[in-house]
Write a structure and sequence with these properties.
This protein has no helices and 42 strands. The protein is mainly β. Strands 28, 29, 32, 33, 34, 35, 36 and 37 form an eight-stranded antiparallel β-sheet that branches. A five-stranded antiparallel β-sheet has the order 1-11-12-15-16, with no helix packed on it. Strands 2-4-42-39-38 form a five-stranded antiparallel β-sheet, with no helix packed on it. The two termini are 42 Å apart.
Length: 508
Amino acid sequence: MSRSGPLRWAAVSVLGMTAACGGLTSRGDDAPAGPNGGSAGTGGAQSDAGVPEAADCVTNPVPTSSSWASRFGDEVDQNAEGVALDACGNTTIVGSFFGTVDFGGGPLANQDYVVLFPDLFLASFDALGKPRWSRRLGEGDWNWWRRLAATAEGHVVVVGGFTGAADFGGGPVTVNDIGPDVFIAKYDANGQHLWSHTYGSKYDSDSASSVAVTSDGGTVVTGRFGGSITFGPKTLTGFSGGLFPRDGFVVRLDDAGEVSWSRAITASDGEGVLLGTVAAASHGGVAVLGSFNGDMTLDGSELHAEGYEFDGFILALDGAGSVTWVHQFATGEVFPSDCAVGADGSVTVVGTAKGEVDLGGGILDAGQGALFVSKRKPNGEYLLGELLAGGSLHAVSASLDGLGHLVVAGRYEGDVTFGDVSLPAPDVPTGFVASFDANGKALWARMLAGSTGVQLSTHQSGLALTGGFQGELNVAGATFTSSGYVPGTANGGDVFVARTTPSDSGPW
C-alpha cells in the first residue's frame, strides 16, 4: 500500500570503508605523491599528511578530470566497507585492519593483534589522491557495520556496532553488559574528533547499519535492536530481545550530537524488521529502506507480509520523525539495497528481486534473481520499475553521478548481462560497477576481478570506489597485486580506493 504526502529530497552521500597498509598508488600525471610525515593524535592514533585546513573549493577548484587509484595492505587481511566523496573532491574511507597500516601519513597499529579482533580506521585523500589524514578508531573486541557519511563542510560521521571496550576519540567507553552496542562518531574535515556516543541495552544485541546527514547539520541513523534501547530521554521497545535482534530504529541527532527524536520500526507476529539505507530530505525528513515479515503499523498505515518471506518497503519520515508516506513491495521477493536522489527530487531505489514481482508498473519476472530499479516521485507516486540484469548478483551501493546517470556497485557470480553489456563469469563471487540512464538502459559495466565487493560514492566532483581484493586487480587504469597473497588461499586481502570521472562510456 502507499500513502502519499509531500517530500522534498536532497542528495546525501553514504560511505563505505576499507583497510590498508604499505600503500601503492597510481595517479594521473597531474597528481603529486603525498608526504609520509605523521604525528600522534588524541583519542586513538592519528596520522596527518600535513594538509591545510578544510579545502576552499572556490579558490581551489576541484580538478574534474583527475583519475587515480591506490592499494593498501600487508601480509594479513584488511577490508573496505564504505566510501564518501565530498564537494571538494576529497575521498574518505572507513574499514577494519589487522597488523599495521599506512595511508601515507604514518603507520596505524592494531593494538590487539588477534585474528578475530580488527581495529577500525578512517582515511581521507584529496581530489588528486594525495593523503590528507588518517586515524585509528575502536580498540574494541569486535566492530562491524561500519558506515560513513560526509557533510557539506567536509565533516564525516561513522556508525556501527562494537563489543568490549573502545575509544572513538572522546575517551574510553564500554558496552552495556554483553553487547554489541551502537556507536555514532563525528569528525571534522581534518579528522579531529567532534563528538561520539554509544547506545545499548543490557543482554541485547544492538548495532547501526546506515547514516545520512541533513542540510542543517543533523545526523540520521538506522539500525537494529533487541528488547529495548534508549536514545536521550526516550526508550524504544520492540518485540524481540537477546542476541538476535528483530526490531529496527531510526534516530536523529543535531549538529552537536544531541538526540532530536527517535522511533522504533517493529513488526509483530513475524520474523521482524531489517532496516537498510537512510537518505536525507531537504526539509529535514528522511527516507528509509528496509524489509519486514509479519504485521507492521506505521502511524496508521498497516502493512502485512505473508508466509516466511520478507517484503521490501520504502518509508518517508518528516523532520519530526512522523510518517509522510510508505510503500510496500508486496508481490514477490523484493530486497531494497540502496537509494539515490535526483536533482528533481525523485527517489531511485536499487536492490535484488526474485520470482514474479511488482515494482509499481505491473508484474515482472525476476526468475531466480535479478537486479532491479524502482523510481518514485517525491510524494511516493510511481515513476519507473525495471529489471536491470538477471543472474546471481547483489547490489551493495548506488548513487547518481554528475551526468545524472545511476551507478550501481556490488558483487556477482556466473554469467551476467546488463542490457547489451555482458560481463565474464568469474570463478568466485566478484565485484562489479555499472551505469544506467534515466530509463534504466545500461550504459557500461565493469568487472573488478579479484575484488570481494565494491562500494561507491558520487558527487559532481566525480566517482569514488572502494573495496577489498585478493590477487590481481585492475581499476581506474591501474593494476595492483595484493601483498601476502597466496594463490588458492584466502590470505592476503588488501584494500583499493579509486576516484574517476563519470562518462557515458565508462570511467576506464
